[in-house]
Design a protein that fits this description.
globular; binds adenosine-5'-triphosphate
Protein backbone atom coordinates (compact mmCIF):
# COMPACT_ATOMS: atom_id res chain seq x y z
CA UNK A 1 0.00 0.00 0.00
CA UNK A 2 1.61 3.28 -1.11
CA UNK A 3 -0.80 5.74 0.60
CA UNK A 4 -1.10 5.86 4.38
CA UNK A 5 -3.84 3.38 5.41
CA UNK A 6 -7.00 4.81 6.99
CA UNK A 7 -7.16 1.78 9.24
CA UNK A 8 -4.48 -0.68 10.33
CA UNK A 9 -5.24 -3.86 12.25
CA UNK A 10 -2.29 -5.73 13.73
CA UNK A 11 -2.31 -9.14 15.43
CA UNK A 12 -5.88 -8.60 16.63
CA UNK A 13 -7.46 -11.39 18.68
CA UNK A 14 -10.78 -11.74 20.45
CA UNK A 15 -12.28 -14.21 22.92
CA UNK A 16 -15.59 -13.46 24.58
CA UNK A 17 -14.91 -15.10 27.97
CA UNK A 18 -11.84 -16.32 29.85
CA UNK A 19 -10.82 -19.93 29.20
CA UNK A 20 -12.83 -20.04 25.95
CA UNK A 21 -11.53 -20.35 22.39
CA UNK A 22 -10.31 -17.31 20.52
CA UNK A 23 -13.02 -16.39 18.01
CA UNK A 24 -10.54 -14.24 16.07
CA UNK A 25 -6.82 -14.92 16.15
CA UNK A 26 -4.04 -12.76 14.72
CA UNK A 27 -6.13 -10.65 12.33
CA UNK A 28 -3.99 -8.36 10.16
CA UNK A 29 -5.45 -5.90 7.67
CA UNK A 30 -4.73 -2.49 6.17
CA UNK A 31 -7.50 -0.48 4.53
CA UNK A 32 -6.69 2.45 2.26
CA UNK A 33 -8.73 5.66 2.40
CA UNK A 34 -11.60 5.42 -0.07
CA UNK A 35 -11.44 1.62 -0.32
CA UNK A 36 -14.52 -0.57 -0.50
CA UNK A 37 -13.23 -3.32 1.73
CA UNK A 38 -15.32 -6.49 1.83
CA UNK A 39 -14.96 -9.01 4.65
CA UNK A 40 -16.04 -12.38 3.32
CA UNK A 41 -16.32 -15.50 5.42
CA UNK A 42 -18.55 -18.42 6.35
CA UNK A 43 -21.40 -18.06 8.81
CA UNK A 44 -20.17 -17.82 12.39
CA UNK A 45 -16.52 -17.12 11.52
CA UNK A 46 -16.51 -13.84 13.42
CA UNK A 47 -17.25 -11.19 10.78
CA UNK A 48 -19.68 -9.29 13.03
CA UNK A 49 -17.26 -9.66 15.92
CA UNK A 50 -14.55 -7.99 13.83
CA UNK A 51 -16.95 -5.17 12.87
CA UNK A 52 -17.93 -4.66 16.52
CA UNK A 53 -14.25 -4.44 17.44
CA UNK A 54 -13.60 -1.84 14.72
CA UNK A 55 -16.76 0.03 15.80
CA UNK A 56 -15.41 0.07 19.35
CA UNK A 57 -18.54 -1.64 20.68
CA UNK A 58 -16.65 -4.53 22.30
CA UNK A 59 -13.11 -4.73 23.75
CA UNK A 60 -10.33 -6.61 22.00
CA UNK A 61 -8.40 -9.38 23.75
CA UNK A 62 -5.04 -8.43 22.23
CA UNK A 63 -3.50 -6.67 19.26
CA UNK A 64 -3.92 -3.18 17.86
CA UNK A 65 -6.41 -1.24 15.72
CA UNK A 66 -5.48 2.21 14.49
CA UNK A 67 -7.89 4.53 12.67
CA UNK A 68 -6.65 7.90 11.36
CA UNK A 69 -3.50 7.41 13.45
CA UNK A 70 -5.49 6.96 16.69
CA UNK A 71 -5.97 3.69 18.56
CA UNK A 72 -9.56 2.46 18.61
CA UNK A 73 -10.61 2.28 22.25
CA UNK A 74 -14.37 2.81 21.96
CA UNK A 75 -17.10 4.08 19.63
CA UNK A 76 -16.49 7.37 17.83
CA UNK A 77 -18.08 9.84 15.42
CA UNK A 78 -15.45 8.86 12.84
CA UNK A 79 -17.34 5.56 12.34
CA UNK A 80 -20.93 4.92 11.29
CA UNK A 81 -22.54 1.49 11.43
CA UNK A 82 -25.27 0.22 9.09
CA UNK A 83 -26.93 -2.88 10.49
CA UNK A 84 -28.62 -5.78 8.69
CA UNK A 85 -32.01 -4.99 10.19
CA UNK A 86 -32.82 -1.37 9.38
CA UNK A 87 -36.20 -1.55 11.10
CA UNK A 88 -34.68 -1.90 14.54
CA UNK A 89 -31.96 0.68 13.80
CA UNK A 90 -34.46 3.49 13.03
CA UNK A 91 -36.70 5.37 15.46
CA UNK A 92 -40.27 4.36 14.56
CA UNK A 93 -41.77 7.56 16.02
CA UNK A 94 -39.68 9.77 13.73
CA UNK A 95 -40.20 10.37 10.01
CA UNK A 96 -37.53 9.52 7.44
CA UNK A 97 -36.28 13.13 7.47
CA UNK A 98 -36.32 13.29 11.27
CA UNK A 99 -34.39 10.02 11.50
CA UNK A 100 -31.72 11.43 9.16
CA UNK A 101 -31.64 14.72 11.10
CA UNK A 102 -31.26 12.95 14.44
CA UNK A 103 -27.43 12.62 14.44
CA UNK A 104 -26.64 16.18 13.31
CA UNK A 105 -29.16 17.54 15.85
CA UNK A 106 -27.52 15.54 18.65
CA UNK A 107 -24.20 16.97 17.51
CA UNK A 108 -25.67 20.48 17.80
CA UNK A 109 -25.37 21.22 14.09
CA UNK A 110 -27.13 24.55 13.31
CA UNK A 111 -30.71 24.15 12.02
CA UNK A 112 -30.00 25.44 8.48
CA UNK A 113 -26.96 23.18 8.08
CA UNK A 114 -28.91 20.27 9.50
CA UNK A 115 -31.70 20.84 6.94
CA UNK A 116 -29.10 21.03 4.16
CA UNK A 117 -27.56 17.72 5.23
CA UNK A 118 -30.98 16.04 5.41
CA UNK A 119 -31.89 17.28 1.91
CA UNK A 120 -28.52 16.25 0.50
CA UNK A 121 -28.46 12.72 1.93
CA UNK A 122 -32.13 12.02 1.21
CA UNK A 123 -31.51 13.05 -2.39
CA UNK A 124 -28.39 10.85 -2.49
CA UNK A 125 -30.37 7.75 -1.45
CA UNK A 126 -33.41 8.70 -3.57
CA UNK A 127 -35.85 9.24 -0.70
CA UNK A 128 -36.74 12.92 -1.04
CA UNK A 129 -40.32 12.09 -2.06
CA UNK A 130 -40.74 9.87 1.02
CA UNK A 131 -39.18 12.12 3.65
CA UNK A 132 -42.38 12.56 5.66
CA UNK A 133 -43.17 8.85 5.91
CA UNK A 134 -42.62 6.81 9.06
CA UNK A 135 -40.48 3.64 9.06
CA UNK A 136 -43.58 1.40 9.24
CA UNK A 137 -44.69 2.87 5.88
CA UNK A 138 -41.45 1.93 4.06
CA UNK A 139 -40.34 -1.11 2.05
CA UNK A 140 -37.23 -3.06 3.05
CA UNK A 141 -35.09 -1.23 0.49
CA UNK A 142 -36.41 2.17 1.59
CA UNK A 143 -35.70 1.31 5.23
CA UNK A 144 -32.13 0.42 4.34
CA UNK A 145 -31.74 3.63 2.28
CA UNK A 146 -32.98 5.63 5.29
CA UNK A 147 -30.49 3.91 7.53
CA UNK A 148 -27.65 4.65 5.09
CA UNK A 149 -28.69 8.32 4.85
CA UNK A 150 -28.95 8.56 8.63
CA UNK A 151 -25.43 7.21 9.10
CA UNK A 152 -23.97 9.36 6.29
CA UNK A 153 -25.54 12.52 7.76
CA UNK A 154 -23.08 12.17 10.65
CA UNK A 155 -20.30 12.32 8.04
CA UNK A 156 -18.12 9.52 9.42
CA UNK A 157 -14.75 8.69 7.83
CA UNK A 158 -15.59 5.00 7.83
CA UNK A 159 -18.91 3.39 6.94
CA UNK A 160 -19.22 -0.04 8.55
CA UNK A 161 -21.90 -2.25 6.98
CA UNK A 162 -22.90 -5.61 8.49
CA UNK A 163 -24.69 -7.69 5.82
CA UNK A 164 -26.97 -4.71 5.06
CA UNK A 165 -28.75 -6.33 2.10
CA UNK A 166 -29.09 -9.93 3.24
CA UNK A 167 -32.69 -9.52 4.44
CA UNK A 168 -33.83 -8.00 1.11
CA UNK A 169 -35.44 -9.81 -1.82
CA UNK A 170 -33.10 -10.60 -4.74
CA UNK A 171 -34.31 -7.77 -6.99
CA UNK A 172 -34.12 -5.08 -4.30
CA UNK A 173 -30.76 -6.41 -3.25
CA UNK A 174 -29.35 -6.02 -6.78
CA UNK A 175 -30.72 -2.48 -6.96
CA UNK A 176 -29.28 -1.58 -3.55
CA UNK A 177 -25.87 -2.95 -4.55
CA UNK A 178 -25.86 -0.67 -7.60
CA UNK A 179 -27.03 2.31 -5.56
CA UNK A 180 -24.41 1.71 -2.88
CA UNK A 181 -21.64 1.81 -5.50
CA UNK A 182 -22.99 5.17 -6.72
CA UNK A 183 -23.20 6.50 -3.13
CA UNK A 184 -19.66 5.31 -2.43
CA UNK A 185 -18.34 6.92 -5.63
CA UNK A 186 -20.14 10.17 -4.89
CA UNK A 187 -19.22 10.47 -1.19
CA UNK A 188 -15.73 8.88 -1.52
CA UNK A 189 -16.25 7.25 1.89
CA UNK A 190 -14.21 4.29 3.02
CA UNK A 191 -16.50 1.29 3.47
CA UNK A 192 -16.08 -1.98 5.34
CA UNK A 193 -18.80 -4.33 4.17
CA UNK A 194 -19.47 -7.77 5.62
CA UNK A 195 -21.06 -10.50 3.55
CA UNK A 196 -21.00 -14.26 3.18
CA UNK A 197 -22.13 -13.94 -0.46
CA UNK A 198 -19.21 -14.36 -2.87
CA UNK A 199 -21.05 -12.77 -5.81
CA UNK A 200 -21.91 -9.70 -3.72
CA UNK A 201 -18.27 -9.46 -2.61
CA UNK A 202 -16.96 -9.50 -6.20
CA UNK A 203 -19.66 -7.07 -7.38
CA UNK A 204 -18.83 -4.50 -4.71
CA UNK A 205 -15.33 -4.69 -3.32
CA UNK A 206 -12.14 -2.93 -4.33
CA UNK A 207 -10.62 -5.36 -1.83
CA UNK A 208 -11.94 -8.71 -0.59
CA UNK A 209 -10.54 -10.11 2.66
CA UNK A 210 -11.06 -13.85 3.06
CA UNK A 211 -11.78 -15.05 6.59
CA UNK A 212 -11.32 -18.61 7.76
CA UNK A 213 -13.71 -20.46 10.09
CA UNK A 214 -13.71 -19.77 13.82
CA UNK A 215 -12.35 -20.62 16.34
CA UNK A 216 -9.06 -18.90 15.61
CA UNK A 217 -10.46 -17.23 12.50
CA UNK A 218 -7.97 -15.10 10.64
CA UNK A 219 -7.65 -13.36 7.28
CA UNK A 220 -5.84 -15.57 4.78
CA UNK A 221 -5.90 -13.28 1.74
CA UNK A 222 -6.95 -9.77 0.75
CA UNK A 223 -7.66 -9.63 -3.00
CA UNK A 224 -7.45 -6.36 -4.87
CA UNK A 225 -10.20 -6.42 -7.48
CA UNK A 226 -9.08 -4.59 -10.59
CA UNK A 227 -12.50 -4.64 -12.32
CA UNK A 228 -14.19 -1.32 -13.10
CA UNK A 229 -17.74 -0.43 -11.99
CA UNK A 230 -20.49 -1.24 -12.68
CA UNK A 231 -19.50 -4.90 -12.75
CA UNK A 232 -21.35 -7.57 -14.70
CA UNK A 233 -21.60 -11.12 -13.38
CA UNK A 234 -21.38 -12.38 -16.97
CA UNK A 235 -18.01 -10.65 -17.61
CA UNK A 236 -15.24 -13.27 -18.08
CA UNK A 237 -12.95 -11.37 -15.70
CA UNK A 238 -15.73 -11.28 -13.10
CA UNK A 239 -16.11 -15.06 -13.36
CA UNK A 240 -12.34 -15.57 -13.02
CA UNK A 241 -12.30 -13.44 -9.86
CA UNK A 242 -15.38 -15.21 -8.54
CA UNK A 243 -13.75 -18.61 -9.05
CA UNK A 244 -10.54 -17.50 -7.39
CA UNK A 245 -12.42 -16.31 -4.29
CA UNK A 246 -14.79 -19.27 -4.39
CA UNK A 247 -11.79 -21.62 -4.32
CA UNK A 248 -11.08 -20.57 -0.72
CA UNK A 249 -14.38 -22.00 0.42
CA UNK A 250 -15.19 -24.69 -2.15
CA UNK A 251 -11.93 -26.12 -3.50
CA UNK A 252 -13.66 -28.29 -6.13
CA UNK A 253 -14.18 -26.57 -9.50
CA UNK A 254 -17.62 -25.08 -10.10
CA UNK A 255 -19.70 -27.30 -12.36
CA UNK A 256 -21.53 -25.25 -14.95
CA UNK A 257 -24.49 -26.72 -16.85
CA UNK A 258 -22.50 -26.93 -20.09
CA UNK A 259 -19.78 -28.94 -18.34
CA UNK A 260 -22.09 -31.64 -17.00
CA UNK A 261 -21.72 -34.77 -19.10
CA UNK A 262 -24.79 -36.86 -19.81
N1 LIG B 1 -21.55 -11.88 22.89
C1 LIG B 1 -21.02 -13.07 22.60
N2 LIG B 1 -20.64 -13.91 23.57
C2 LIG B 1 -20.10 -15.11 23.29
N3 LIG B 1 -19.89 -15.59 22.04
C3 LIG B 1 -20.26 -14.79 21.02
C4 LIG B 1 -20.85 -13.50 21.23
N4 LIG B 1 -21.11 -12.95 20.03
C5 LIG B 1 -20.71 -13.85 19.11
N5 LIG B 1 -20.20 -14.95 19.70
C6 LIG B 1 -19.65 -16.12 19.02
O1 LIG B 1 -18.61 -15.69 18.15
C7 LIG B 1 -18.61 -16.47 16.97
C8 LIG B 1 -18.63 -15.52 15.77
O2 LIG B 1 -19.89 -14.84 15.76
P1 LIG B 1 -20.16 -13.64 14.74
O3 LIG B 1 -21.57 -13.22 14.92
O4 LIG B 1 -19.10 -12.64 14.89
O5 LIG B 1 -19.97 -14.40 13.35
P2 LIG B 1 -20.43 -14.00 11.88
O6 LIG B 1 -19.34 -14.45 10.97
O7 LIG B 1 -20.80 -12.56 11.84
O8 LIG B 1 -21.72 -14.90 11.70
P3 LIG B 1 -22.95 -14.78 10.65
O9 LIG B 1 -22.37 -14.72 9.28
O10 LIG B 1 -23.74 -16.03 10.89
O11 LIG B 1 -23.71 -13.53 11.03
C9 LIG B 1 -19.79 -17.42 17.04
O12 LIG B 1 -19.32 -18.68 17.48
C10 LIG B 1 -20.67 -16.79 18.09
O13 LIG B 1 -21.40 -17.76 18.80
Amino acid sequence: MTTQPLITINHLSKRYAPQTDLILSDINLEIAPGAFQVLLGPSGCGKSTLLKLISGLIPKTSGAMVLNQHSITGPGKDRGVVFQNAETALFPWLTVAQNVAYGPKMNKVAAAECARKVDYYLDLVGLTAHKDKYPTELSGGMLQRTQIARVLANEPDLLIMDEPFSALDAQTRTQMQQELIQIWQQTKKTIIFVTHDIQEAVLLGTDIAIMTKSPNASITANYQVELTYPRAITDARFITMFEQVNGHFFPAPIIRPFEVSA
